[in-house]
Hints:
Blueprint: E1 10-20, H1 25-28, H2 36-50, E2 63-78, E3 81-91, H3 99-113, E4 116-119, H4 122-136, H5 142-146, E5 163-165, H6 166-170, H7 182-189, H8 202-207, H9 211-236, H10 241-256, H11 263-271, H12 274-280
Parallel strand pairs: 1-4, 4-5
Antiparallel strand pairs: 1-2, 2-3
Helix pairs in contact: 7-9, 9-10
Amino acid sequence: xxxxxxxxxxxxxxxxxxxxxxxxxxxxxxxxxxxxxxxxxxxxxxxxxxxxxxxxxxxxxxxxxxxxxxxxxxxxxxxxxxxxxxxxxxxxxxxxxxxxxxxxxxxxxxxxxxxxxxxxxxxxxxxxxxxxxxxxxxxxxxxxxxxxxxxxxxxxxxxxxxxxxxxxxxxxxxxxxxxxxxxxxxxxxxxxxxxxxxxxxxxxxxxxxxxxxxxxxxxxxxxxxxxxxxxxxxxxxxxxxxxxxxxxxxxxxxxxxxxxxxxxxxxxxxxxxxxxxxxxxxxx
Length: 284
């Protein structure tokens, strides 16, 4: 069945956390590292070599997925306007789940829901990583590649109704500025942004067995992404001021209602400036 963007009934705001996949080194470079630290150094050196010393960050296929967090919200349409009803925020799989289990669960879930993707740099990094790693385990996703048409689909860069990569739309697809960080956008919008952890610390946390902490951090990044998306949709007129305010308050209430079980949501709420969001919502 061919899908169009109006058939997408929910938002899927997502983020992933990864560590370098050093297990590829024997087949990639012929090297056999003695431990993870040496393997990461070797993988970094490989990428420095192929970029003439410009970039040691591993390319997308060489990232092992250790957490996939997402927020789902129902889309309600009224003509050209939309309303969003937050359903849940969580991280897929068990804390101890393997990468293969995480990916199988994700793609099975998405094959049923077929949502609109919302991400921050997800078109360049997160989604390609997920696709490459799914291929590693023989996981298929025909709906991802066969929905829509040539110009309007998950794979079309300018189809924000299918996949709204906020880094793209906020920078006018690179024409306005390059490399705008999520944390920078959060800082001007009165949102919490990073709470003492960033992606550079994930590998060390993973080595120390802090998988729950990685998952919690990933969830707060998803929350930040969703709130930035609400601001963007309000700015473009897709969300009117009343629905923008309601969606922001809905997110704050969601955090407040689960603080006992998920302290990181309490930390996020404490760092938030909801009065800023509410004040802005009074301006069309």
